[in-house]
Specification:
By secondary structure, the chain is mostly helical. It has four helices and no strands.
Length: 67
């Protein structure tokens, strides 16, 4: 069997690489609203329940619905 040599591991991602994975606040809200709506249908949750679960306001759900 080959012995495993220990290697020093560099940081996996640089700051520049991390920035490539960020999304805008508006896009984040839109994604949360989509997931919240799916939960409302699938689990029969109310708007208040999904707002609490996803950290959304009634206004945010309305804004994204109308855009």
């Amino acid at each position: 069997m080959k012995s495993l040599k220990k290697r020093k591991v560099k940081d996996e991602l640089t700051t520049k690489m991390h920035s490539e994975f960020t999304i805008s606040k508006e896009k984040e809200v839109a994604i949360k609203v989509l997931l919240a709506k799916q939960d409302m249908k699938e689990f029969n949750y109310s708007v208040a329940q999904v707002c609490e679960l996803y950290g959304l306001s009634d206004e945010e759900i309305g804004i994204v619905e109308n855009s």
